[in-house]
Write a structure and sequence with these properties.
By secondary structure, the chain is mostly helical. It has two domains: 2-40, no CATH class; 61-290, no CATH class. Helix content is 76%, strand content 0%. It is built from 13 helices and no strands. Helix 4 packs across helix 6 and helix 6 packs antiparallel against helix 7. The protein is globular, with a radius of gyration of 22 Å. The protein starts with a helix and ends with a helix.
Length: 291
């Protein structure tokens, strides 16, 4: 079995580290039960595929997705948090009894809210330190949304949930290398992105302020600000942070693009925010180097 798994590695990597991998794997699985050996084999196969795809922790791709994954998870949580908040607002403001509304909710819409809850709960668990469990829950919710957006598009209405953006977000989250899971600082920043991107929109939608959030610009502004902060703290030019921000913002841009057929400004505006944030990160780095 180990010989077949070893072939999954690229030839150069296999010739350099193959024997070491075999020795370590056999030592680790010598006293394990069958279920444990199968799990170890699966971990080894996953690592081999990551190395072949350039997504292991030592590669640039792995480091990029280690940064992008928590931000993408935060954006997904903020978007789905708005879905749940709007559902709850309709529930409590309707003159019909809440229990009657719940019992008469169509199964399609019930699944829609269940998937949103899975994404939000999974993101909270993952960013609070239980990365694997949280990512599994969030990924299941995202995949459920992707399937539902194909077979029941009426629940998404071309908005936040579309098959492409949801699948890309899922891939970004799952591509984070196992040994490069976000630490406390990055998890805290991602959690702040989710919270700050969600709460003000909810406040505005209560009608307290005479402004609109129809274009969804606020969450992407929060995401851009987080990327600038990360670039500042890491003393980089912001190239990796810009890429992570762009990848994480796909659901927001996808949602804004749904307006493009009638009003292109939401889509253009969000792209300009991303561009200006990238320019700002480069400018900040240039100023720091000049000191």
């Amino acid at each position: 079995m180990i010989d077949r798994l070893l072939r999954l590695y690229p030839p150069d990597y296999r010739s350099a580290y193959g024997q070491e991998i075999v020795d370590v794997h056999r030592e680790l699985t010598a006293d394990l039960p069958r279920a444990g050996r199968l799990r170890a084999d699966a971990d080894l196969a996953a690592h081999a595929l990551r190395v072949r795809l350039g997504l292991d922790s030592a590669s640039r791709g792995g480091r990029f997705f280690a940064l992008a994954a928590p931000l993408a998870l935060a954006v997904a949580a903020a978007g789905n948090g708005l879905v749940l908040t709007r559902w709850y607002k309709g529930l409590v403001t309707s003159p019909a009894p809440a229990w009657s509304q719940l019992t008469h909710t169509e199964a399609t819409w019930g699944l829609h809210y269940l998937f949103a809850l899975m994404v939000c709960a999974g993101a909270i668990v993952a960013l609070c330190g239980r990365w694997v469990r949280g990512v599994i829950a969030a990924a299941c919710g995202l995949m459920g949304q992707a399937v539902q957006s194909v077979f029941a598009p009426q629940v998404t209405d071309g908005g936040f949930v579309t098959p492409l953006t949801v699948l890309l977000t899922t891939v970004v989250v799952l591509a984070c290398p196992g040994d490069r899971r976000p630490g406390r600082e990055l998890s805290a920043i991602a959690g702040a992105v989710a919270g700050v991107g969600w709460f003000p929109v909810v406040v505005v939608e209560t009608g307290t302020f005479g402004v609109t959030t129809d274009y969804g610009a606020w969450p992407v502004l929060v995401l851009a600000a987080a990327a600038v902060v990360l670039a500042w703290r890491r003393r980089t030019f912001g190239l990796r942070e810009t890429g992570a921000m762009t990848v994480a913002s796909l659901p927001l841009v996808g949602s804004a693009s749904a307006w493009a057929s009638t009003d292109p400004w939401p889509f253009v505006g969000l792209l300009l925010v991303l561009l200006l944030a990238s320019v700002l990160m480069v400018g900040v780095r240039a100023v720091r180097r000049g000191r």
